[in-house]
Design brief:
single chain, alpha+beta, Heat Shock Protein 90, five-stranded antiparallel β-sheet, two-stranded antiparallel ribbon, 33% helix, nucleotide-binding, Anti-sigma-factor_SerPK, ATP binding, ATP-binding
């Protein structure tokens, strides 16, 4: 399927199921680029929902993936730096027992910030990610920073 949406071209194969694709190809990933703007977060979330929905993950897992990816995208918009093209990148990569979400921006990485107060309405995104994911972390690259999170997709 190829469609144009809000200035983007979306290409997806909806005939692939995650487990079958992983077994057949060994690895399958989807990468998307978004403008570093607040309006990009809901767009990223909707496209991520569509991709992982096509991979036929269970609905509760799709919701967890959406939430984690949304938190990472929000951090890229709020705290990251835009690439030369003004974008941040999202990569979804199924693994044999899980899904890896990566969000890359041109920023230098984490900055020490004070812990949010008990009444604060924000500032807990990475705490949420750490509680929902099997593992997560940050990698410095020559182009900036990649924040990644891995969720289990199997029940065994």
């Amino acid at each position: 399927m190829i469609e144009r949406r809000e200035g983007l071209i979306v290409v997806a194969r909806q005939d692939l199921r995650a487990k079958e694709a992983i077994e057949a190809a060994g690895c399958l990933s989807v990468q998307m680029s978004f403008l570093r703007a607040h309006a990009s977060v809901p767009l990223a979330r909707a496209l991520i929902r569509r991709v992982v929905g096509a991979w036929e993950f269970d609905k509760p897992l799709v919701q967890d993936i959406e939430l984690v990816a949304s938190e990472l995208c929000t951090n890229a918009v709020l705290h990251g730096a835009a690439s030369r093209l003004g974008c941040f990148d999202v990569r979804l990569a199924p693994q044999p027992r899980g899904l890896r979400i990566e969000v890359a921006d041109a920023g230098p990485g984490p900055v020490d910030r004070p812990a949010p107060s008990a009444l604060a309405e924000n500032g807990r995104g990475l705490l949420l990610v750490s509680r929902m994911c099997e593992s997560w972390g940050l990698d410095a690259t020559s182009d900036g920073t990649v924040v990644w999170a891995e969720l289990r997709t199997d029940t065994a």
